Every structure is written in structure tokens, then in C-alpha cells.
Amino acid sequence: MSWTIGSWEFQGPFEKACELESRDGLYVVLCGHDEIFEVYEIGLSSDIKAHIENNSLYAGWMNRCQGRLCIAVFYSGGKSVEAMQAIKKSIEHELIGE
């Protein structure tokens, strides 16, 4: 399954960290229900699965989310760190105006 976030096609949504792959890329943590989702975090990681599993903010996201907490991922597929940072920045700009 895939989700379009900003102008990019992400894999997911995944509801459990065990569903993620131990690969580098960009992740978006979302909370919502039906078709309305709020972005909790957008980040880059060299190991998305380990990063989400060990993220100290995860419990807070779970407590704060009154709907479905999920993660969408865009694995780098060999793209450079600079290219992934540019994608992250473009998504942040599209979604939250940063």
C-alpha cells in the first residue's frame, strides 16, 4: 500500500514498528482517522525501524493520538543524504510551511 505525502509516494501506513524495514530513509509519523491525519514528526534515519522502536517520543505519540497512529516511509533507494534532506525540506514546506 502507498500514501502520497506532499508530492512524494510513501510506503505504508504501518501501525507497528515491526512492519518497518531496517533501511535508511524518510519517515512521517501521523495520527488520524478516516481520511484526516495530523503530522506528528517528519525525520530522516539511517535505520528507520530501530529509530521508531527506540524513539523516546513514541509513548507520547501513543498517548496523544486519539485515532490511528501510523508511520509512512520513503526508503532512500540509494539517494544521497543531501537528496533525502531536500525531499524532507520540500515535504515540510508543503505540509507545514517550514
Plain-language structure description:
- The protein has 98 residues and is of the alpha+beta class.
- It has one domain (2-96).
- It is 30% helix and 39% strand.
- It has 3 helices and 5 strands.
- The N and C termini lie far apart (28 Å).
- The mean pLDDT is 89.
Pick out its properties:
alpha+beta; 98 residues; 5-stranded antiparallel beta sheet; 30% helix; globular; 39% strand
Q: Order of strands side by side in the largest beta sheet?
A: 1-2-5-3-4
| Count of beta strands | 5
Q: Largest sheet at a glance? A: 5 strands, antiparallel
**Percent of sequence in beta strands:** 35-45%
Backbone shape: globular
Number of helices: 3
Question: How is this structure best summarized?
Answer:
The protein is α+β, with helices and mostly antiparallel strands and 98 residues long. Helix content is 30%, strand content 39%.
Draw up the topology in text.
Blueprint: E1 2-5, E2 8-14, E3 25-33, E4 36-45, H1 48-53, H2 58-64, E5 68-75, H3 81-96
Antiparallel strand pairs: 1-2, 2-5, 3-4, 3-5
